[in-house]
Amino acid sequence: MNRTASEMIDNTTAIPEELKRSVPRPWKLTAQGKGVFAGAILMVIAAVAFTVGAYVSVRHTAAIHRAMQEHGRTQSAAIVKTYRAGDEDKRDVFVYEFSVDDKTYRGRSEIAIKQSPRYQAGSSISVRYLPERPAVNWIDGYPPRGIPLFVIPLLAGVMLVCAFAMLRRLWRQEELVAEGRAAAAMVKTVKRVHRGENRKQRAQIQFLLMSGARQEAQLEFGKNAPQPDSTIIILYDRDNPRRVLRYPACLVRVEKPGEW
After folding, report:
1. Residue 235, burial from CB neighbour count under 10 angstroms (0-12, 13-18, 19+)
2. φ, ψ at 255 (rounded to 5°)
3. In angstroms, rounded to a whole number, what is the distance separating the alpha carbons of residues 93 and 110?
4. Which ranges constitute the DSSP H helices of the chain?
5. Residues β-bridged to residue 130
């Protein structure tokens, strides 16, 4: 049976006791909320660590390339093994051996397929090495590529954006839990929607504002969406009533009376 919001509930008996407190309400993170907060902090730390580590790596690689250009030497070597690596970015890997001062060194070079010389096991090649550190070497003409500079801010930026999105989700729930007005809402319709690879359910809800006016809004759910014509408790933004949150929220909760 279809009902209007005014027919649905005309008193506040269904509103949880903790939501009847004056605002701002005291709040706590749920276990899931603590996990999201910790994940965001770890994401920020990872972004900083990656930036510092990548910068050090780029400087180290540049220093080796300069040293190789200034006083590197060449030596003949023999390919002892070849194989292909990578899934999408496929590369030819060449393992080789060469001798310096009667000591044998083993090297390994990865070369993109498009630029690969396609050496076979047993082939004789030329390698370039540092005289003071023969273990630092590569196939002559195929120096290893370091991390492109543009990748450093790009990946760090992606991690920071993800961290911000996680924190923003917490802030939005915290704001409504602490300041939002509570109301009983009727679920009018529930439809399946697709967001990329994610499948969600979108519910159209209707509830009464403090003025008595009817307000409609939308809520998105995962698998456990409420049934049409059912009643749920929501919190809505006083200034933007279309901005709503189902209560209890998954990340933030109001402190219960016994915790006041």
Report:
1. buried
2. -65, 135
3. 4
4. 5-8, 31-71, 151-179
5. 133
Q: From CA 22, how far away is CA 4, in angstroms rounded? A: 28
Looking at this protein, which amino acid is placed at residue 53?
G
What the block records as the tokens of 243 is 């901005």
Q: Tokens standing for 135?
A: 């273990």
Give the N- to C-terminal CA distance of the chain in Å, as an integer.
Answer: 40
Q: Specify the range with the lowest mean pLDDT, choosing from 13-27, 61-75, 200-214.
A: 13-27
CB count within 10 Å of CB 249 equals 21
Taken in order 136, 140, 142, 148, is the CA torsion positive or negative?
Answer: positive
Percent of the chain's residues with pLDDT above 90: 73
* Residues 178-201 as b or e (16 or more Cβ within 10 Å = b): eebbbbbbbbbebeeeeeeeeeeb
User: For the chain, what are the domain ranges?
Assistant: 5-23+180-259
Long-range pairs of 168-175 with CB within 8 A, sequence gap ≥ 24: 169/36, 169/251, 170/29, 170/33, 170/36, 170/37, 170/40, 170/251, 170/252, 172/245, 173/33, 173/245, 173/249, 173/250, 173/251, 173/252, 174/27, 174/252, 175/237
Q: Which amino acid is at 232?
A: I
pLDDT in tens, 64-81: 999 999 999 999 999 999
CA distance 253 to 260: 13
Q: Which residue has the higher pLDDT, 163 or 21?
A: 163
